[in-house]
# Entry
Amino acid sequence: MSVSTTDFALPRLLIARAVEQALAEDLGVRGDLTTDATVPRGTMSAATFGARCPGVIAGLAVAEAAFHALDASVVFEPLVADGASVAAGDVAARVSGPAHALLTGERVALNFLSHMSGIATLTRRYVDLVEGTGARIADTRKTTPGLRAFEKYAVRCGGGQNHRSGLYDAILIKDNHIVAAGGIEAALSAARAHAGHMVKIEIEVTSLEELAEALQHPIDAVLLDNMEPPMLREAVALVDRRAITEASGGVSLETVRAIAESGVDLISIGALTHSAPILDLGLDFTPHAG
# Structure
């Protein structure tokens, strides 16, 4: 499976801000002591980003920005696109230019690229497991503070879909909202009165009884929380395409196929962003290049 990223991209200003913050954290007030002490200014080098295990690449533009923030003359040459699968030993990109910029930017570039590629890789595993069922894999808001846009971009690179980006772009009434509002009917009535015509409304339910009550109101989607596949099948039948059905809770690589086969439209998985291991990538220098 390959994913085209031509229809979505991270805004350059967002990348620049995140990279600047990461470099500032690494450089502190004294800069790169090791490189300054060991490598003469003017030294030129070249290096390759190599995959040490198979996976899916995401974040090449962010890695490039880490070097360009230090020296605009650095040449960054991606050999694959975000969303591409790589095998162990494959080279994802080449970089060349002043050694000081390459060495100083190395860790920031790898941190972003490895983290985002790890998310894309885990997402692809889930997507592949539900192939043919019609279910789509989606992320959640369980993201690293400050990195949500990057992590959600990585999910798309892996073939997944994005749930709401934040509290501002959809109404999702969860169990605590229902309790605080005084019940499902009260919460849904208030939400519909408050929402504009462009705002979608979703509500979380944990039983078929709660689902039946929710379906008495106009809703766009229903989150079926922690339901086993047999109950999910009943819920999908009860909804009967009146709303989008989303399964969430208790989803793992071992259970996702059975959940998908229940007929739900979406499966949202917090682990895509909060528990994905990094993809092991390395930056290997070629001595005395350039």
